């Protein structure tokens, strides 16, 4: 199975490959010029190459940040959905126990009643835990 390359990752060969054409063009232009001009053109070529590389790096960084934000939003939505589902299931489990406990004393033995009360208390603790579990706090990646 071949792995799909990540468009946000820039390898060293790509970076040096972007610099070569600019350097060749400057050296071709500067070959007829004197040494000081050639040095200035060489410096300009290096500056242009660095600018191109920086632009690609910042673009890749922006893509990574956006992907991270998107993943965080998906995680937040998933955790909220799970929390809601847990609360609903706990309520669905507690209701029948409440109905059984509401029966007259003679329908349940003391052991059965105690077992139901223990189960109901455990479910109520889970309900409280589910209600008091805060949702994840979104991370703000902007400068403040």
Give the end-to-end Cα distance, rounded to a whole number of Å: 44 Å
Secondary structure: number of strands: 0
The description of the largest β-sheet is: none
The portion of residues assigned to helices is over 70%
Number of domains: 1
| Spans where pLDDT lies below 50 across 5 or more residues | none
Overall geometric form: rod-shaped
Mean pLDDT: 77
* DSSP summary: helix tally: 3
SS strand fraction = under 5%
Structural class: mainly alpha
Task: Walk me through what this model shows.
With 144 residues, the chain is an all-alpha fold. It has one domain. It contains 3 helices and no strands. The mean pLDDT is 77.
List the helices and strands and how they pair.
Elements: H1 12-30, H2 35-101, H3 110-132
Attribute tags:
144 residues; mainly alpha; 3 helices; 0% strand
Outline of this structure?
The protein has 144 residues and is mainly α. It has helices spanning 12-30, 35-101, 110-132.
């Amino acid at each position: 199975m071949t792995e799909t390359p990540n468009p946000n990752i820039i390898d060293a060969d790509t970076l040096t490959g972007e610099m070569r054409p600019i350097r060749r063009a400057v050296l071709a232009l500067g070959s007829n010029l004197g040494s000081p001009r050639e040095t200035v053109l060489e410096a300009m070529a290096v500056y242009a190459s660095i600018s191109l590389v920086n632009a690609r790096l910042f673009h890749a960084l922006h893509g990574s940040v956006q992907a991270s934000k998107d993943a965080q939003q998906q995680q937040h939505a998933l955790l909220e959905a799970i929390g809601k589902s847990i609360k609903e299931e706990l309520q669905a489990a507690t209701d029948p126990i409440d109905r059984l406990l509401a029966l007259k004393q003679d329908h349940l033995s003391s052991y059965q009643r105690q077992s139901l009360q223990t189960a109901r208390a455990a479910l109520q603790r889970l309900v409280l835990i589910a209600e008091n579990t805060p949702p994840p706090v979104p991370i703000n990646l902007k400068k403040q």
